[in-house]
Amino acid sequence: MKRAxxxxxxxxxxxxxxxxxxxxxLPTDTGTPFPDFATVHKQVSSAxxxxxxxxxxxxxxxxxxxxxxxGNVHAGFEQPASMRLEGVPPFGQPVFILVAQGGSGTLLLxxxxxxxxxxPAEAILDQLIGVNLAPADLQAILTGCVVPTPxxxxxxxxxxxxxxxxxxxxxxLYLRRTTSRAGSSDSAWEVRAxxxxxxxxxxxxxxxxxxxxVHLVSDSPKIQVDLTAGLSDLEANVDxxxxxxxxxxxxxxxxxxxxxxxxxxxxxx
Length: 269
Description:
6 helices, outer membrane lipoprotein receptor (LolB), chain A, 15-stranded mixed beta sheet, 41% strand
């Protein structure tokens, strides 16, 4: 198991990572009524709400617990609860392959021929990178919907071009006015951040309908996570059925969630 720990750290732990991006200062004023909040929310969430499947390469960097993390993860999702995350190093075999379907996850460490079966995907992901999110929730956050079935319930306009929209379930979406093109007076609303439980989520818009980067920060003192995922090679609504299976070698040795916990970034010293 010690070699597995070293491989996970080698793939994701780097001492020369710069400090995380500065957090976005969200509006604190009470705001005024936003009459068009439902229409605006429908516009800004149309792409993510319509993504039955979603695939992207995540350039992950930041910190989880006392560890600095960095690496590329090939990610695929299919509603309602399927996911594949594959940690890809610069060369050689994947560091890990995590697949989930029907509420159950399987983690394979190909280089160590170790396998963890029958645990919730969010519990496994929590030990890998400190993010305890189910597949549907992670897809929603990465695509900009924030929650799997976003439903706007109220909205407010704030100073400096900000607006906030309450989502059913307690999450809050923050938008900001942006100029649509250089030299134009036209403007549009752009998803800039969100609050969901103990998480603050910050978005950078890209050329596609989905975010270019997602900055995920935990405000809980018990979960010290500050991660940024740059998104590239994005595709939505493509066939990913074969992605949610993993070939486990017959000689792979079983491992437990406790063993994984002791190798993960939030392990107990």
